Amino acid sequence: MPNQLKLGLTFPPALVPEAFRSFVTSVESSGLDDLWVSEDCFKEAAIASVVTALAGTERIRVGASILPVPLRNVVQAAMEIATIDRLYPNRFVAGIGHGVQFWMEQAGVRVDAPLTLLREYATVLRQLLDGERVSTTGRYVHLDDVALEHPPHQSPALLIGAAGPKSLAAAGELGTGTLLSLGLDLDAIKQSCQTTLKTAGPDHEVIASIPVATGPDARSRVDAELAEYGMKGTPEIGAVGGAEEIADRLLQLAAAGVTTIAVQPCRDEPDHDAFAHFLGQQVQPLLT
User: Collapsing DSSP states into helix, strand and coil, what is residue 224?
Assistant: First the structure.
């Protein structure tokens, strides 16, 4: 576990793209470590958002969580990741996952064995980003003598989104980090960390997406946010209250094996700039 728990803020997928630039500026000036962008269907495109954020900042790491692999050919993903990594070295981290199956079906790209696709895709993507020349014939991924002309100068991080035991184990094995699902309680996060770290290397990053709110109605706001995703809220999911209460909950997650927190603000958050600075200047100093 790192000496300091990393803390970042996720751009709420419910917001319109026009709100993104000011949100990025707030995260950059807040002192937070990371900005996370989602690719929920059928909202903002993560790669376009990542490049916009990196072009307008100098300090923060920007993460894509997640890129659904059925939507992108693996060669396209490798070219996108490699190009961004060379333009903005050590500031971009890509996360991939098999996607929400209902959305994949809507888009006409659902596969019969999503974990098989994810394994094949992650393996080949890692090889391409490492500068290898790849030929493969899998169930879903087929390449014939493909290599990137401009691979990253150094092997970049690759995060894998995972939920069930098999995908968590695969994420530990195939990725440099695991992206946990939104809406997990403390016990589920602890179990997920244990499962993914069994197959992971010593520096494996575990990122938890946590809904957070402040104020007297914070708990009801977090529960309402979870309900938008079809999840039932409980006091064990997310973090609410003042800086000390929120920091205490985040440190509990760190003790469970989490190394990075991606805070998900509620869609009714009235002031994202104030919220980012609250997290960066009041909560983050307590995470030691």
Answer: helix
* Radius of gyration, alpha carbons of the chain: 18
Domain containing 107 equals 6-283
d(CA 44, CA 41): 8
Which residue is associated with the tokens 């958002």? 49
Indicate the residue type of 49.
S
CATH no. for residue 221? 3.20.20.30
Residue 94: strand pairing partners: 64, 158
> Could you give phi then psi for residue 239, rounded to 5 degrees?
-140, 135
- Distance separating alpha carbons of residues 42 and 47, to the nearest angstrom: 14
Pairwise pLDDT comparison (3 vs 209), residue with the higher score: 209
The one-letter amino acid code at 31 reads G
User: How far is the C-alpha of 151 from the C-alpha of 129, rounded, in Å?
Assistant: 6
pLDDT digits (tens, 9 = 90+) for 54-100: 999 999 999 999 999 999 999 999 999 999 999 999 999 999 999 99
- The count of structural domains within the chain is 1
Rounded Cα distance between 210 and 222, Å, is 10
Residue 288 located in a structural domain: no
CB burial string 218-235: b at 16+ within 10 A, e below: bbebbbbbbeeeebebee
Average pLDDT, the chain: 96
Nearest to 94 by CA among 150, 161, 149: 161
What six digits make up the tokens of 72?
């992108």
* Contact (Cβ atoms closer than 8 angstroms) between residue 45 and residue 10: no
